[in-house]
Amino acid sequence: MRKNYCIANWKMNQSIKDCKNFANYMENNFNYNSSEMLICPSFIHLDLMSYLFTASQIEIGSQSISEYQNGAFTAEISCEMLLDMNINWAIIGHSERRQIFKESDYEIHNKLKNAVQNGVNPILCIGESLEQRQSGNTESILKNQVKMAINTLDFTDVNLIIAYEPVWAIGTGIAADLSTIADTHDQIRSFLPEFISTSKSIPVLYGGSVNPDNCKEILNIENVNGFLIGGASLDPQKFLNIYKQMNEIGVESL
Ligand code: PGA
Q1: Are 112 and 124 in contact, with CB atoms under 8 Å apart?
Q2: Which atom of ligand 1 approaches the CA of 95 most closely?
Q3: Looking at ligand 1, which atom is closest to the CA of residue 211?
Q4: Catalytic residues, which ones?
Q5: How far is CA 107 from the centre of its chain?
Q6: Are 79 and 67 a contacting pair, CB within 8 Å?
Q7: Mind spelling out the 3-state secondary structure of 4-41?
Q8: Atom 1 of ligand 1 has which residue's CA nearest to it?
C-alpha cells in the first residue's frame, strides 16, 4: 500500500530545548491518522529524538548518511549507527547537499545503495535549479537524477520515498505554483516505472516553502503524496497543522 508522508527536515536548526518542546507538544496534540509523520533532526539530536519519541507513532530519520559501511571516515555517520538508535530513515541527495557540499550523483547512488543494503529507508530528493527550469530541461534533469541514483538498485526490502523539491522554491517562502507542481509530479510518476518496477507503491512528496496556508491546495493535486518540509516544520504547531490538513483531505492511498 502506498502511504502518505509528512516529513520534517530541520536542517541545521533546533536546540535540545526545542527538541523537548516539540516532543512535548506532539505528545499532547498528535493523534495518529492515516498519514505517517517523520522528523529528521540534525545528527547530534538523533539519539535524543529517538528516545523522546520511543513510544510514539512519529518516526525519526537522519538528514544524510555516509556512503561507506564503517571505518576511517572522520565525521561520517554510518547506517549501523542509525539502526543502533532505532532510526531507519534517511534523507539522501537533498539539494543543499548536492549544491553546497558538492555531493555528486555517484556519491548519492552510493549512499542509496548503502541504505538499501542496510535496511535503512531512503528519502531520495530530486529537483531542478531555476536555470534548468527556465531552459526547459526540468524533466530530463529529474529523470537523470533518478536514473543515476537508482541505477540497478532493488527496493524490495526498504520503503523508498521520492521528494521532488524545486531548488528555486526551497526556503523562499513561495512554493512552486500549482500547475508546475502538478505537471512535474505527473512527469515523475510517468518516468518512474522505467527505473523501479514497484514504482506505483512509491510516494512522491513535494517540498519547497510548504506551510499551513498553501498545503491544502498542493495536497489536492493528484500525484502529490505528502510533503518534505523545512522552515514550517520547526514550529510544532504549524507542522501538526499541515499533518492534520493532510488527513482531512484524505490524500489517496493505494
Ligand atoms: P522549506 O525547505 O520548506 O524551508 O522550503 C524544504 C526542504 O529543503 O526540504
Answers
A1: yes
A2: 8
A3: 3
A4: 94, 165
A5: 18
A6: no
A7: CEEEEECCCCCCHHHHHHHHHHHHHHCCCCCCEEEEEC
A8: 230
> Nearest C-alpha to atom 7 of ligand 1 is from which residue?
230
End-to-end CA gap in the chain:
5
183 Cα–ligand 1 center, Å? 20
Among 128, 228, 234, 242, the mutation site with the greatest number of ligand 1 atoms within 8 A of its Cβ is 228
Pocket of ligand 1 (CB under 6 A): 9, 165, 170-171, 207-210, 228-232
Cα–Cα separations (whole angstroms), residue 67 to 70, 71, 85: 9, 11, 19
* Ligand 1 atom nearest to CA at 208: 5
What separation in Å is there between the alpha carbon of 172 and the centre of ligand 1? 9
> pLDDT tens per residue, the chain (254 residues)?
788 999 999 999 999 999 999 999 999 999 998 899 999 999 999 999 999 999 999 999 999 999 999 999 999 999 999 999 999 999 999 999 999 999 999 999 999 999 999 999 999 999 999 999 999 999 999 999 999 999 999 999 999 999 999 999 999 999 999 999 999 999 999 999 999 999 999 999 999 999 999 999 999 999 999 999 999 999 999 999 999 999 988 655 55
Distance CA(242)–CA(239), nearest Å, equals 5
